[in-house]
Amino acid sequence: MGQKANSRREADNEAAAVGKMIRTSPRKLGLVAGLIRGLDANQALAELTFSRRRIAQDVKKVLQSAIANAENNHQLDVDRLYVAEATVGKALVMGRWRARARGRVGRIQKPFSNIKVVVRERDQERA
């Protein structure tokens, strides 16, 4: 009875992790995602550890989750992993209001973002 299981969205040599509702704008999060795109997993972790941007710690957690998924769920070699994709998307935007002069209001937007990190195992000859 029931539905059939969905097939994997990633290839056999990759694993992913998603961070949802991260409290920063997609533009700021995209800058941090660009720092790690294409780097080896260990090098990307080091880059995020010493980054001065506040949101880098949240991106680091998502990257660590992707590495753990690759190791535990898909039996990939951690030493050969690299960040294949780091994509950022827009989530909801909270609207707030602030009183301004002469009875008017100023709109304040508090955006949220999503990030998806995909790590892939390098080929044997390139490692």
Write a structural description.
This protein has 127 residues and is an alpha+beta fold. It has a single domain (14-121), classed as Ribosomal protein L22/L17 (Ribosomal Protein L22, Chain A, Alpha-Beta Complex), CATH 3.90.470.10. It is 29% helix and 35% strand. It contains 3 helices and 3 strands, in the order βαααββ. It has a 3-stranded antiparallel beta sheet with strand order 1-3-2. α2 runs antiparallel to α3. The chain is flat, with a radius of gyration of 19 Å.
Write the layout of secondary structure elements.
Layout: E1 14-22, H1 26-36, H2 41-49, H3 56-72, E2 81-99, E3 105-121
Antiparallel strand pairs: 1-3, 2-3
Helix pairs in contact: 2-3
Kindly report how far apart the N and C termini lie.
Answer: 45 Å
Strand content: 35-45%
CATH class: Alpha Beta
Would you tell me which CATH topology applies? Ribosomal Protein L22, Chain A
Q: Provide the spatial order of strands within the biggest beta sheet.
A: 1-3-2
Largest sheet: 3 strands, antiparallel
Based on CA atoms alone, the radius of gyration comes out at: 19 Å
Which geometry do the CA atoms define? flat
Question: Could you list some keywords that capture this structure?
Answer:
3-stranded antiparallel sheet, 3 strands, alpha+beta, single chain, 3 helices, 29% helix, 35% strand, 127 residues, Ribosomal Protein L22, Chain A
Brief write-up:
The chain is of the alpha+beta class and 127 residues long. It has one domain (14-121): Ribosomal Protein L22, Chain A. It is built from 3 helices and 3 strands; from the N terminus they run E-H-H-H-E-E.
